[in-house]
Design goal:
Helix content: 40-55%
Number of strands: 25
Structural class: alpha/beta
Number of helices: 46
Strand content: 5-15%
Radius of gyration: 29 Å
Largest sheet: 6 strands, antiparallel
Shape: globular
């Protein structure tokens, strides 16, 4: 596409006030979705209302410019990317407009996320109603995206597809007119708008003629299957189906019109629900039981491969999955009803019935809501989790959405498995088994020419196979770039002609998402990993490629496949705090990974790539919280990639001032420990603001008091006991700012009958790692490993959670030696050490009855999401309120002047509300120094008492000073 028309288009759009971005970084972010494809747009626009969308379409029609609508950008088929103008509706057009309980409908804008919509409906109706479709990506999928793909979800056995919930849709046509589609036809949104009335009449009449001319075709080829989503849903235009033009647009993938609002149905929520987990030897055996299970009228019947379960256990720990029955494949069966006892009895009968059939290896009901949520999260993360498995295999979309009738599923999967074997491929399967829809990620090799040849042959044979079984190429993801070319295998020439005619009625100039469904682009073109050059990206981190012959860094950044969990704004997980604060795609983990992928693809040399300003800009608001390393289903570790990039980017360049002040903080703390009174006096003087500005530090955050060496020595002593069985690692932050924590930690371990040796002279290198000064970090870590590798297996208990994480994870990656690995394996975070002692029978002298806890993000990512709560529960704390999110400080980030506002916005996601809601007198637990500093800021309490370390809360020295009530409960802390 030539630059002149695009420049004129951008000028015209800017003239009418459209927010538009054509920067190279922004274009990269929108060149990808969750598919195998990469198509670079010309510009990205962020419309605010339907009037702006109308202006955009009129201008694009005048220029003959293609338009692609986009919501969450999670399409696995490649229908959310395009070469022209991409419209992102998620930023502004994301409101609930009207909720009508009488008609049980809700009207919404196109960019509202499904979980947000569900939450707002439930809040407005007292938990009685919701929006039913619940695809696994519902935390970032928008309503218009769900309509465009005709998304279904985990409970589609009960609730059907999105099409079943559509009442009407308001549209902007390709010509820029505002019309409404619904039962009975198409009409102008404003009946006084003569031009829109005329356009609506033209479309209505054209669709009516198309339906009248193809009655037999529409009745025989379409609507045969509950999950027949491929192609256009033209059976909805039949007279017996009410000539429903809104439903006909479901699954049209943005190729016919632009949705600007939709009216959808409310669905009632069942009062009681129970999950039943079933284990099978393989997916075929699991599928064989589906027809019998459907007799029990379940709300959901979901399948999942054991390979996905093992990946979760490897990446997030056993607690992230919980107990499952024996098996290599599992079915999740959700039963519901009005009475919990009736549902429980139904589950027992189901288990007995299936046991008699003899296919299951085991089964169990899961009444615990936490376990239930964990198991559903495993299923919901299936696409990402199956992309990179424990054994190193990579799998890809492309044939991830075929559907057959449920009674044909076992036979289809048996033949499909044989087809995989024929091509020496492996398929990791999950999906909506109860609806006959299987999501499969296949171990294709899209990087090599031979691998792409195998991929193409397989896809064509798979299309023929599912057609022989009476199925559909797509069951909810749409055809997109991945399957549109294969529609000729499934449909007759007459049906394909009808598709073309239908598209032409809506979009005569073919500017809406061209190349999708009709006149398809070749499915093997525009593959993102085809032709990626080897440029020699050498790294300081030991990034081992999962595929032989690949470079470590490119392979690592390519782990992002675009599923977009980093765009969730609430619910399980911490990732991604910067996106949650700004709601801008550029601040998501996905966008950063995509910009890094573009660097790898487009740089002429590695040196040029490492100096990319686009990447530097993209990483600016990354907090290096590490949450993505565990929350991202694909295992993206952006904190490590950022550190590696900064290491190269700033070679030979002047760094930001904060990299010298905060990045070198452990060095400065050695100095301040000798002159702490003078330093603290200076920080209380008018000079403090000037010093902060020179150091690149915000003046809006009050600095903590610096501790002296004598304070530390008073807490931990100066002698080392003989034959100590535990090493207490006292890190730079604790030495320099919270020596009392070190003393408390030592006393707790000693109270648990441990003999403690304190190590207070080593450094984990964290501040140098987070600022990308990796040569220094590696030298420090090498010295630390040498000092700690003492020939014993004594646990090394680390007081500060971020330092514990650095020694556990970063140490062996930056210093890949046996010595470093031995030390890393001995590292314990403090809650882990406490839990170990409580499991051995130790109990503290006193604990508070309730605690509000902020788990440090590095601890969450490295030691597990339940590390703090498990320890507190074992200690006997009755009420634990957890702030589920990043505190916002994240080491140097929240102290840098340019990041202060975002830091506080991040805190408002979870920590600040938790503090405001905590009953007065409830201890606030912050083992991390960063978290402690943010609590001080939020509460405007700049003392050490603003929040406490776990060691301080259970310190035996302080227990005697606590006031207790007559029943023995602590009443003051």
């Amino acid at each position: 596409m030539s630059s002149a028309p695009s420049e004129a288009l951008v000028r015209d759009l800017e003239d009418v006030g459209v927010e538009i971005d054509g920067s190279s970084r922004r274009l990269t972010e929108y060149s990808f979705d969750a598919s195998n494809y990469r198509v670079r747009p010309t510009a990205v626009a962020f419309p605010r209302n339907s009037q702006e969308v109308g202006s955009i379409m009129r201008i694009c029609q005048r220029h003959g410019f293609p338009v692609t609508s986009r919501g969450g950008g999670t399409s696995m088929a490649g229908n959310a990317i395009g070469s022209g103008l991409v419209l992102d509706f998620s930023r502004y057009m994301n409101r609930l407009l009207d909720l009508d309980l009488e008609s049980k409908t809700v009207k919404v804008e196109p960019g509202i996320v499904l979980t947000t919509l569900q939450k707002e409906i439930q809040a407005a109706t007292g938990g009685k109603y919701t929006f039913a479709p619940d695809p696994s990506s519902m935390g970032r999928v928008t309503v218009a995206g769900a309509i465009g793909n005709d998304a279904c979800g985990n409970h589609s056995v009960r609730d059907g597809r999105t099409v079943d919930h559509i009442v009407s849709v308001d549209l902007v046509t390709a010509s820029g007119h505002l019309v409404t589609a619904g039962p009975g036809g198409v009409w102008a949104f404003d009946p006084l708008d003569a031009e829109s009335t005329a356009e609506a009449a033209r479309i209505h009449d054209g669709l009516k003629r198309l339906a009248d001319a193809n009655l037999a075709l529409f009745r025989t080829e379409f609507g045969r299957l509950a999950r027949q989503v491929s192609g256009y849903q033209l059976a909805n235009l039949l007279p017996e189906n009410g000539f429903n033009t809104a439903k006909a647009l479901a699954g049209s993938e943005g190729t016919c019109a632009v949705i600007v609002s939709a009216t959808v149905k409310l669905a009632q929520i069942s009062p009681a629900a129970l999950l039943v987990c079933l284990g099978y030897p393989d997916v075929v055996a699991a599928a064989s039981d589906v027809p019998e299970i459907l007799r029990f009228n379940p709300a959901a019947v979901e399948g999942i491969d054991d390979a996905i379960v093992q990946t979760v256990r490897h990446r997030r720990g056993d607690a992230a999955v919980g107990a499952l029955p024996e098996g290599k494949a599992y079915l999740y069966v959700d039963l519901d009803g009005d009475d919990p006892e009736d549902v429980k009895q139904q589950a027992e009968v189901l288990l007995q019935t299936l046991a008699k059939r003899g296919n299951i290896l085991g089964g169990m009901a899961v009444p615990d809501p936490v376990e239930r949520a964990n198991l559903w999260r495993v299923r919901e993360d299936g696409a990402g989790l199956s992309s990179r498995l424990v054994d190193g295999n990579q799998s890809w979309a492309g044939w991830e959405d075929a559907a057959v009738a449920p009674e044909n599923l076992a036979a289809y999967l048996s033949d499909f498995t044989a087809l995989l074997d024929k091509h020496q491929l492996r398929g990791i399967m999950y999906g909506h088994f109860g609806a006959g829809c299987t999501h499969v990620r296949v171990t294709f090799d899209p990087r090599s020419e031979s691998g792409r040849e195998v991929m193409e042959r397989f896809l064509r044979e798979a299309a023929a196979l599912v057609t022989r079984h009476g199925g559909s190429l797509s069951g909810e993801h749409g055809d997109g770039r991945a399957r549109s070319e294969l529609l000729s295998v499934m449909y007759s020439p007459a049906a394909l002609t009808a598709f073309a005619d239908y598209k032409a009625i809506w979009d005569p100039q073919e500017i809406l998402n061209p190349g999708i469904i009709t006149k398809p682009a070749p499915m093997m073109s525009e593959l993102a990993l085809a032709g990626v050059p080897a440029r020699g990206f050498r790294t300081t981190f030991a990034l081992e490629p999962t595929i032989k012959g690949q470079e470590g860094f490119p392979d690592a950044v390519q782990s992002c496949i675009g599923v977009g969990r980093c765009r969730t704004t609430a619910g399980a997980g911490v990732m991604c705090p910067s996106y949650r604060a700004t709601r801008d795609e550029k601040d998501s983990t996905r966008a950063r990974a995509r910009v890094l992928q573009e660097m790898v693809l487009g740089s002429r040399t590695a040196q040029e790539g490492w100096k990319s300003q686009d990447v530097r800009d993209s990483l600016d608001l990354c907090l290096s919280c590490k949450a993505c390393s565990t929350d991202c289903p694909a295992g993206v570790d952006m904190a490590s990639y950022k550190a590696e990039f900064f290491h190269h980017f700033y070679q030979g360049r002047l760094r930001p001032l904060s990299h010298y002040s905060l990045g070198w903080l452990p060095t400065w703390l050695k100095l301040t420990s000798r002159i702490a009174p003078l330093v603290n006096m200076t920080l209380r003087s008018p000079l403090a603001a000037s010093i902060a500005r020179v150091a690149g530090i915000t003046t809006r955050r009050k600095m903590p008091a610096f501790a002296s060496r004598k304070q530390l020595e008073r807490e931990i002593g100066t002698t080392t006991p003989d034959n100590a069985d535990t090493v207490l690692f006292v890190d730079s932050f604790t030495r320099g700012f919270r020596p009392a924590v070190a003393g408390a930690a030592k006393r707790v371990l000693e109270d648990a009958q441990r003999t403690v040796e304190c190590s207070a002279d080593q450094c984990c290198g964290l501040t140098w790692i987070s600022t990308g000064q990796l040569d220094i970090a590696r030298k420090l870590l090498s010295r630390t490993a040498a000092a700690l590798d003492d020939g014993t297996d004594r646990p090394i208990v680390v007081v500060e959670p971020s330092c514990a994480a650095a020694l556990r994870k970063d140490l062996p990656e930056l210093v890949p030696t046996e010595s470093a690995r031995r030390v890393a394996n001995r590292i314990q975070n403090f809650p882990g050490a406490v839990l170990e002692q409580t499991n051995a029978g130790w109990r503290p002298k006193a604990v508070p009855p309730a605690v509000t806890v902020q788990t440090h993000c590095h601890e969450y990512a490295t030691f597990g999401s339940a590390t703090q709560t498990s320890a507190l529960a074992a200690l006997g704390v009755a009420t634990i309120t957890q702030a589920n999110g990043c505190c916002g400080v994240a080491g140097n980030f929240g102290f840098e002047h340019q990041h202060f506002d975002v830091s506080m916005a991040v805190a408002e996601q979870s920590l600040a509300p938790a503090l405001r809601e905590a009953p007065e007198g409830t201890p606030v637990l912050t083992d991390g120094f960063s978290c402690h500093m943010q609590v001080r800021q939020i509460l405007d309490n700049h003392s050490d008492q603003a929040s406490r370390h776990l060691a301080e809360i259970i310190d035996p020295q302080k227990a005697s000073k606590q006031a207790t009530s007559p029943d023995g409960k602590t009443i003051a802390y």
